[in-house]
Amino acid sequence: MSSGRRLEGKIVIITGGASGIGAEAVRLFTEHGAKVVIVDVQDEAGQNVAVSIGEDKASYYHCDIRHETEVKNAVKFTVEKHGRIDVLFSNAGVVERQQYSILDLNLEEVDRVMAVNLRGAAAFVKHVARVMVESGTRGSIVCTTSVVTEIVGKAQHGYTASKHALLGLVRSAAGELGKHGIRVNGVAPFGIATPMLCDGSETETSKLEEIFSESANLKGIVLTARHVAEAALFLASDDSAYVSGQNLAVDGGFAVVKA
């Protein structure tokens, strides 16, 4: 594995980049020489991340990924600002607001989750891949999947279904885009106490971390957003130059042991 700045000069879009895994990825990727466009609907948080890093390295663009026109405009903004796109980290995601039995499944919630986790990701893969193919860029596309793609029963039904569908998209897109030199991979984390899952308070974060640690296979370390961002960095960089169609588990062996 190479050392130093692993994304030097690369142009990157990170969706869901205003908080959680996405914000950590923005910080890490820019540390490694990338220029990043943060895509999110959390305007204040996204702008704060960009300002904290430096607007010469990171910029914020408001985009509701459920709407393809907004996705297309975000991609257009990136190309107009930087001239190309080398990496997409499609990380934005949501969960159902509460756990439902399959017998009482809230289909409106399922539609909302699918619209972000699958449809939004698909729109970004579509429009970024178009730019890469047209420019001849041998780019990398990384999507945040989940440990639930490897072992079920640990999350809401709609979320689980959306992540399985997303992994199918990753593998299908990898199969088509390989001829253009474009790699497509997933990164599948175990449970993390991100703002998506908690209210952001230290008490709630600590409580969730304790719950996840109790059920984790790998003891002595708590999974953080930074760990997932580092895995995404590997897949985004040339260190993984011949890796495509994979679902890199960042789960401390949980799925292997529990399966």
Automatic annotation (TrEMBL):
Cited Pfam families: adh_short_C2
Record field: transmembrane: none
InterPro entries registered for this protein in UniProt: NAD(P)-bd_dom_sf, Sc_DH/Rdtase_CS, SDR_fam
Listed SUPFAM superfamilies: NAD(P)-binding Rossmann-fold domains
PROSITE patterns, sorted: ADH_SHORT
Superkingdom of this protein's organism: Eukaryota
Family: Belongs to the short-chain dehydrogenases/reductases (SDR) family.
Name assigned to this protein: Uncharacterized protein
